Amino acid sequence: MSAQRKEQPVIRVKRSELPLSCPRPEDEVWNMHPRVYLPLEKEKRCECPYCGAVYQLSDS
Questions:
Q1: What is the pLDDT of residues 13-51, one digit of tens each?
Q2: Are 23 and 35 spatial neighbours (Cβ–Cβ below 8 Å)?
Q3: Which helix (H) or strand (E) holds 41?
Q4: Where are the domains of the chain?
Q5: 3-state secondary structure of 16
Q6: What is the pLDDT of residue 6?
Q7: Using CA atoms, how far apart are residues 22 and 52, in angstroms rounded to an integer?
Q8: Residue 11: strand pairing partners
Q9: How many CA atoms lie within 13 Å of 35's alpha carbon, on the beta-carbon side?
């Protein structure tokens, strides 16, 4: 039996919300892991190394 990672929903982020950190201050579990800043401007799509949350830069 192989462990499969659960697919995370993509969290869309506007440019006005940058710089992006995970967890975000408005997240219900904002203290679940250390804050990490993700290079969303450069990558356009990033995954948090702690919780696996997937963020994508929104065009609008």
A1: 999 999 999 998 888 776 689 999 999 988 899 999 999
A2: yes
A3: helix 40-43
A4: 10-57
A5: helix
A6: 63
A7: 10
A8: 55
A9: 9
What are the C-alpha distances in Å from 8 to residues 4, 5, 16, 54, 56?
12, 9, 23, 6, 12
Phi, psi of 43 (to 5 degrees): -90, -25
Report the alpha-carbon distance of residue 8 to residue 34 in Å, rounded.
Answer: 19
pLDDT confidence of residue 24: 87
Token readout for 56 is 């994508």
Residues 6+ apart with CB under 8 A from 39: 46
The answer, yes or no, to whether residue 2 has pLDDT greater than 60, is no
